[in-house]
Amino acid sequence: xxxxxxxxxxxxxxxxxxxxxxxxxxxxxxxxxxxxxxxxxxxxxxxxxxxxxxxxxxxxxxxxxxxxxxxxxxxxxxxxxxxxxxxxxxxxxxxxxxxxxxxxxxxxxxxxxxxxxxxxxxxxxxxxxxxxxxxxxxxxxxxx
Length: 144
Description:
Elements: H1 2-11, E1 15-23, H2 27-30, E2 38-45, E3 54-62, E4 87-90, H3 94-103, E5 113-117, E6 121-129, E7 135-143
């Protein structure tokens, strides 16, 4: 949880807007667990005016998160597998955001790429991962 907090708050610049510990019997069915989990939750939100995007970080205090063997990642499948997903951050200037995050130690799959999409405009995008291997995208769209 601490490493996710450092990443989303300090590196990506999201605001930590709340945290709580929850133990609720009804959550067992949602998470498909035999008993009620005890969860530590933190909510991070984009800054600025307008619509906010919230990312919820969840740590299972009980039952504990299983520890995977070294080198095995829970998202170790290819991005085109059914069920693969990612979080996309739309930015105003992808080059500036990319350069700022590289300076902060973020490793990207590649520098931003640019291409045209008919009816949409110019698309610039790149991917990177958070400390738990969740795929994240930076996206800039310039309409035609």
